[in-house]
Amino acid sequence: MEIININSARWHTQLKNSVTNFSDFVQYFENSSKNRTIYDDTARYDHIEGSSNLLDSIKLYLQNKAMEKVIVENRKIEKVFVKNREMERVIERYPMRITPYYLSLIKSVGDPIWKQAVPDIAELYESKDESVQPVIVADPLHEERQSPVPSIIHRYPDRVIFLVSNQCAMYCRHCMRKRKVGLQIQQKLSSKFCRFKLCSNEEYKKEESENIEDYGKSDLIDLGLEYIRKTKEIRDVILSGGDPLLLNTEKIDRILFALRKIDHVETIRIHTRVVCTLPFRITDNLVSVLEKYHPLYINIHFNHPSEITDESASACDLLSSAGVPLGCQTVLLEGVNDNPETMITLMRKLIKIRVKPYYLHHPDMVEGTAHFRPSLDTGLDIMRSMRGSLTGIAIPQYMVDLPGGYGKVPVLLNYIKQRDSEKAVVENYQGKICEYRF
Ligand code: SF4
Q1: Per-residue model confidence as pLDDT tens digits over 287-316
Q2: Which of 89, 130, 249, 279 has a 20 to 30 A CA-CA distance from 349?
């Protein structure tokens, strides 16, 4: 069987001579890859030439193809890394998707990158120890009950989570929305909006000819926008999912445009993990769209220092340079980052790439993730170790999200050992006690 290396100069020359628009490209690619193996040795497409829109679409398409290959060939991954038939059982319940890029960060079976990406039979256990674990359920935060329309979670009066996609570049094994991501719950939404499931030429053309006003009344995005429009107390909208940046750039543009037309929406935030799992998605074209809609904030999700690479740093740089403030929501995960050394290294690396550590989440009591839950004391010890070892801007807030939809609260270390009306007895980061008079 012939192998096509999509990074080879020969293939690019053929491509350049045959393709002037995206539809041509899809046709060319499908024809030329029939009965051949597509080989992508770097998952980078920087040197393909073309107009920026065409280039963007081609890069995404190729990345998608490479992803599909990894998904389809999960048996191969299994063979390469470990003989584990149980993986199939897990995938039947919780989908698996790993980008070639993220896969390349794995150094050995069971390392912190592997643990976040590769299914584990423990996901099918209700808890790691039922006698001591609290009840673990699919939706402990009662998001479904706080959902006035299917694409909105409205917990706090002034802000909403707007679920615009249920697709992610990678399905993190510790995901708190494991019950939803990658599944068919929002099938209509994802097939309509997500080019990553791409897409016959017909569908593509139809999609391209739509605009935001054409979304049917029953469409989930439209319902979400309508809810935000009529709920005047909403000041802050968080685009989430799934991963909003897996939508195609034009759709992201339309959603942001529609939100910016709503007077009472002051800030827009995007929660995404593509910077970490598919950094090539942060293209010049995408950034040129995002920067039209300031004040726009992006919260990303790094959990381990090995995830900060030249590629993810470049993606962050593109966003920061366009004036998008970047924060990081790290999840404390057993076997991944549940020790001071790893966490301190991660926080140092984050501020070096202009990402402010925002939250350190204690993992929620979500079904299929019990094996990732460390104790609260582990988290507090890590927080204690950060104070004194890290500059203040590198220290995130340690948070728990209360079951039942009662919201997030910070978990604080108690530095004040005693106090009365005149003084407090305070412990410093070294454990030394000192008196502080008011
Ligand atoms: S990217 Fe976010 S939403 Fe998607 S699987 Fe990972 S944690 Fe869940």
Answers
A1: 999 999 999 999 999 999 999 999 899 999
A2: 249
Check pocket membership of 102 for ligand 1, CB cut-off 6 A. no
| pLDDT class of 51 with cuts at 50, 70, 90 | low
Give the atom of ligand 1 at the shortest distance from the alpha carbon of 274: 1
Sign for the CA dihedral angle at 402, 181, 288, 257 comes to negative
Is the Cβ atom of 244 under 6 angstroms away from ligand 1? no
Tens-digit pLDDT profile for residues 166-223:
888 888 999 998 887 876 433 333 333 222 232 233 333 343 333 322 333 347 888 9
Contact 398, 337 (CB under 8 A): no
The CB of 273 under 6 Å from ligand 1? The reply is yes
Which residues are marked as active site? 155-156, 159, 168, 172, 175, 177, 364, 401, 408
Q: Which CATH superfamily is domain 152-411 in?
A: Aldolase class I (3.20.20.70)
Kindly tell me the burial class for residue 81, based on how many C-beta atoms sit within 10 Å of its own C-beta (0-12, 13-18, 19 or more).
Answer: middle
What's the burial of 383, exposed, middle or buried (CB within 10 Å: 0-12/13-18/19+)?
buried
Cα–Cα distance for residue pair 82/60, rounded to 1 Å: 30
177 lines ligand 1 (CB under 6 A): yes
Listed residue (267, 269, 265) closest to 240, CA to CA: 269
Give the pLDDT confidence of 402-428 residue by residue, as tens digits.
988 889 999 999 899 999 999 999 999
Cβ 397 vs Cβ 359: under 8 Å: yes
Between the alpha carbon of residue 89 and those of residues 80, 86, 96, 204, the distances in Å are: 18, 5, 11, 34
Q: Which atom of ligand 1 is nearest to the CA of 174?
A: 7
| 318, HSE (Cβ side, Cα atoms, 13 Å) | 18
Dist CA 69 CA 94 (whole Å): 18
With the C-alpha atoms ordered 199, 202, 203, 207, is the resulting torsion angle positive or negative?
Answer: positive
**Best residue for ligand 1 mutational test, from 71, 177, 367 (most atoms within 8 Å of Cβ):** 177
Domain positions in the chain are: 3-72, 152-411
